[in-house]
Design brief:
This protein has two helices and eleven strands. The chain has 152 residues and is mainly beta. The protein has one domain: Alpha-Beta Complex (glutathione-dependent formaldehyde- activating enzyme (gfa)). The strands form two sheets. The protein has an eight-stranded mixed β-sheet with strand order 6-7-8-9-4-3-10-11. A hairpin with a 6-residue loop joins strand 8 and strand 9. The longest helix is centred in the C-terminal third of the chain and has 12 residues.
């Protein structure tokens, strides 16, 4: 991924909810879990993990949708686009749906998760693959490897 000009803006499909990221992501990913398949009506979801301090909703008011438990998915109340997730237990990060960024072309998935549930024909260029989720102790290594990957 090439370095992009920051801040970068994004929005839902109808543009009633807009957001901004002011730092580069710490990792990009594709999730193949059946939940993401159903939420996106696609083979996988694409996302970029940003520090929470670098993410701001700049217009509109997202509502909780999808998961309503410990992990919280946020959606546009009008068009119902799935915007971002606040993962349980890691409040310092926000997982943004990368394709909603106004210029999403550079957000190539570095890792893919839940390959145990992936559709057999679905492929990504991910460098790292996990049958489920990486272990918490794997993230420092993954983020360091992503920093090298994204600098290319």
């Amino acid at each position: 991924m090439s370095v992009q000009t920051l801040p970068q803006e994004g929005s839902c499909r109808c543009s009633r909810v807009r957001f901004s990221v002011s730092e580069a992501p710490v990792i990009t990913m594709a999730c193949h879990c059946t939940g993401c398949q159903k939420m996106t009506s696609s083979a996988f979801s694409l996302s970029a993990l940003f520090p929470a301090s670098a993410f701001t909703v700049t217009q509109g008011c997202p509502m909780t949708g999808g998961l309503h438990g410990a992990n919280r998915h946020y959606m546009c109340p009008h068009c119902m686009s799935w915007l971002f997730t606040r993962p349980h237990g890691i409040d310092e990060f926000v997982n943004v749906r990368a394709t909603l960024l106004d210029n999403a072309s550079g957000y190539v998935p570095f890792m893919e998760t839940w390959t145990s549930e992936k559709l057999p024909w679905a492929t990504t260029p991910a460098v790292e693959s996990f049958a489920q989720l990486p272990e918490p102790q794997d993230f420092p290594r993954l983020m360091q490897a992503y920093a090298v990957f994204s600098a290319r």
